[in-house]
From TrEMBL:
PANTHER family: GOLGI APPARATUS MEMBRANE PROTEIN TVP38-RELATED (PTHR12677:SF59). This is TVP38/TMEM64 family membrane protein. The chain crosses the membrane at residues 32-60, 67-86, 106-127, 139-160, 172-191. It is a multi-pass membrane protein. It is found in: Cell membrane. It comes from Conexibacter stalactiti. Pfam families: VTT_dom (PF09335).
Amino acid sequence: MVVLFVVAASVFGLSSEGVRDAVDDVGPLAPLVFIAFSAALTVACVPGPLLAGAAGLLFGTALGTPTAIASATLGATAAALISRRFGASALDELSGRRVTALQDWIAARGFLAVLYARILPAVPYNLVNYAAGLTRVPLAVFAAATAVGCAPRAFAYVALGGSLDDLGSPEAIVAFSVLIGMALVGLLFAARDVRAARAARREG
């Protein structure tokens, strides 16, 4: 996603300083406008890394990071709310005992279940948004776990967007390190779960 963002920016001749000069003309409401539009695009399943990179390009890392986290959390919660409003009741009517048991398992773990889904690198962000709406996890808990879970990657993508003119800068290097670290943490969690599942099967 970062590669796509950088290529697109290069093709259209964007520079971080030029874009920020244009944003400054909009005034202090620019971050709020971005949050609203980015949240709407999140509901429409536009990839989060592109939106976070855009926040970095527009506002820089310091302001872009909280802006990206807020927009990602708002969009994710809106998507979960839509899913719950229009899909949860139908799922409850059609689901069997296994699905109900899975819903109960996720609801019991709430914050940690959502946080875990956000950390794992192979789990699509937008899929989690809509799938969470079909569970019994309270939306406030979902939003809190989303904000915490998406923060490291949001910072990384924002920093890369803000460093578009110099991807070899210390800020960009830190961003790449965060993304690699998050991927490794996710793989460690996944490996732990695989070992636990195998041990449970052996005991059973």
